[in-house]
Amino acid sequence: MKRMIKLLVLLGIIFFIYTLFTKEDAKPVFNEKVDSTPTTAPTPEIEQGTITVISKDEATQKPIKDAVFTITAANSGSVIGTMTTDEMGKATSILLDYGTSYKIKQQKVGRPYQLSEEEHQIAVNGPAQELTTTNKTFEYVKDYERAADGSITIKKVYIDVDTIMQKPELPNGCEITSLTAVLNYYGYDVTKTEMSDNYLPKQAFITKNNKLYGPDPYKSYAGEPRSLKGGFFSFAPPIVEAANLYFDVAGRSNSTSDISGSTREEIIEQLNKGIPVVTWITLDLTPPKMNYAWYFSDTGEYYSAPINLHVVVLNGYEDGKVHVMNPLKGQVTYDADTFFNSYDAMGSHAMIVE
């Protein structure tokens, strides 16, 4: 009996041990849990917005194409970039951080518009900021045409150059009188006789061995503008020199240019910029009459000279015509083709003051 009891106890222990190990093996298997807790705090998203500039004609409120604006950081003064308007007159910046301020200034605008000197400051505090700017047209541009793509063609220019007549003081001083008219236009208070007497390079004619000697008209005025019979002409270089000599004395820094050889289109472009052009033509716009001659005093070279040369100020154009300040006739208009044919026939001589 005791043996039976011991056997039952032993079997019970064995069953218990067996059951215990069987439960351990039957436990479900789970994947190892990965700790996804971030080790650093997430970077907050920076809010950003843009600035759109809208460029308009002040008078018509039409959009202005190809206006260029500079955008500068208000605090640091560093240039962020430039923006150029499209055919709708709009230009949009890159994305800029909220809370920052910028200065917007026009850097370039096409003719007929005057460049705006106004500087605008604007803060970025939303997704889209807008700034509207306007431009005035130059006073000398009297008419222009806008194409569907926003491009502009100037149709009429008139530069208000005052009339100065060369006579009676300078019967042969059309060149220096025309220059004086241009100087007066730029605000210089000087007379034609002051310019002729004090600044124009001149050389007199002399006769030697029955030959007439005189200057190279590219170097000096031939004769004396005050003289009815003893004055002739010069080309552009002596007139440029006269202007420069005057500027030296006046202490001013305007620039002068001999633009001889310029094409008709290049001359018109000077007018589009508001620059009157001193131009060599003939008195009646007919072909040059080469009925006079002399020998150059310095080289002895024989030179045939036109007797109908004339110099005027070209100060505008419109619809097949040109506007001219003629020091013998005053303000006149000529057929544009006839005028430029005379300019070409005379050798395409011209000069400007800027």
Describe the model.
With 354 residues, the chain is α+β, with helices and mostly antiparallel strands. The protein folds into 2 domains: 48-138, Sandwich (Immunoglobulin-like); 174-353, Alpha-Beta Complex (Cathepsin B, Chain A). 22% of the residues lie in helices and 33% in strands. The chain has helices spanning 2-26, 174-185, 192-198, 236-250, 264-272, 336-345, and strands at 48-57, 68-73, 79-84, 90-92, 96-97, 101-108, 119-123, 128-135, 141-146, 152-158, 202-203, 206-208, 211-214, 221-222, 256-258, 277-282, 292-296, 302-305, 309-318, 321-326, 330-335, 350-353. Strand 9 (141-146) and strand 10 (152-158) form a beta hairpin. Helix 2 crosses helix 3 and helix 2 packs across helix 4. The longest helix has 25 residues, at 2-26. The chain is elongated and about 105 Å long. The termini are far apart.
Shape assignment: elongated
Strand content: 25-35%
Helix content range: 10-25%
Radius of gyration: 42 Å
Global mean pLDDT: 91
User: Which residues sit in consecutive blocks of at least 5 with pLDDT less than 50?
Assistant: 23-34
User: CATH superfamily of the largest domain, called what?
Assistant: Cysteine proteinases
How large is the count of helical segments? 6
